[in-house]
Amino acid sequence: MKNILVTGGAGFIGANFVPYFIENNPEYHLVNLDLLTYAGNLENVSEVENHPRYTFVQGDICDRNFVEELFQKYQFHDVIHFAAESHVDNSISGPEAFIKTNVLGTFNLLDTARKLWMSAPNQYNVGFENSRFHHVSTDEVYGTLGETGLFEETTPYAPNSPYSASKAGSDMIVRSYFHTYGMNVVTTNCSNNYGPKQHDEKLIPTIIRKAIKGENIPIYGDGKNVRDWLYVLDHCKGIELAFKTGRSGETYNIGGRNERNNLYIVDTVCSILNELQPKSEGKYQDQITFVKDRPGHDLRYAIDASKIENELGWKADENFESGILKTVRWYLEKFKK
Ligand code: NAD
């Protein structure tokens, strides 16, 4: 049995990934390390809590001593690193936590692996030789696009928010551990995810929550900002594939070719709600209100996923319309409780 460390597995994407990975990879025992910040919730992984190949550990990736002890205890074969501060709005009001967790935390994991491997290569080889260190990152590191063009893996980094800057910093540290120490690293940069288990603060859960409570549904600016939406399980499948078959030192963009602006997202969610849970009077669209735009709000993100599609054979299973229907149904159930 190989031990794999998954960081941030009680957050949105990690909590979709953990049960999926355990189910599909019987040769692994998965250790989920999560600090359980406001964004982490063990209910998100309740379906695996008693699984024999699953262990949850609460702890901070920024705590170097703790990380070293954990690596020594489990002698991990691989790491998949999700843990991060992830909400752009919070990075504007309080950037420090983002720099700490996303930059220092990532460095701690990499450097612990390096130090242990250098001290006893036969005992600890996580992230070296055939053991992988997979870093989960975002397309926001590329900055913003105009009306046309796509982010490719060669697009220069130009992060605009403290969140994306901290993720860009972490990507660069990962890169340097490949070039300097020969670590077996892969980074995936993914577009906006949506689906079950996302924190209530994010766009789609906010729309659904406010809509069914009869509150105003806020849209930043004119609602014309475009994001490339990907169903979370398709992201998880892309991570698993790149983790297993990606070339060491490479980065892979993951995106579903589903460019939609915020107005379209809100309108689609409202239309599904009109069908599934009609209001006694009027439509959910009547609750839409425009609010002051977020500072530094990037206009458009869109991913060119040709590299992971052509080289590794990944393809999104869900289109936006099928994925969003599943998603709205899931949140309606959740908010009913
Ligand atoms: P999330 O905020 O929902 O979850 C992050 C998890 O990390 C939480 O469970 C939190 O408790 C944990 N965490 C935070 N600080 C920690 C620390 N110091 N030590 C240990 N655990 C800590 O985030 P998410 O949306 O699931 O994103 C996961 C990863 O995917 C992030 O690295 C993010 O940058 C990346 N990503 C997200 C998206 C998206 O659309 N959500 C898109 C592309 C990439």
UniProtKB/TrEMBL annotation:
Signal peptide interval: none
Gene Ontology molecular-function annotations: dTDP-glucose 4,6-dehydratase activity
Pfam families recorded: GDP_Man_Dehyd
Cofactor(s), by name: NAD(+)
Domain of life of the organism encoding this protein: Bacteria
EC number: 4.2.1.46
EC class (word): lyase
Domain NAD(P)-binding: 5-325
Keywords: Lyase, NAD
InterPro entries: dTDP_Gluc_deHydtase (IPR005888), NAD(P)-bd_dom (IPR016040), NAD(P)-bd_dom_sf (IPR036291)
Sequence similarity: Belongs to the NAD(P)-dependent epimerase/dehydratase family. dTDP-glucose dehydratase subfamily.
Protein name: dTDP-glucose 4,6-dehydratase
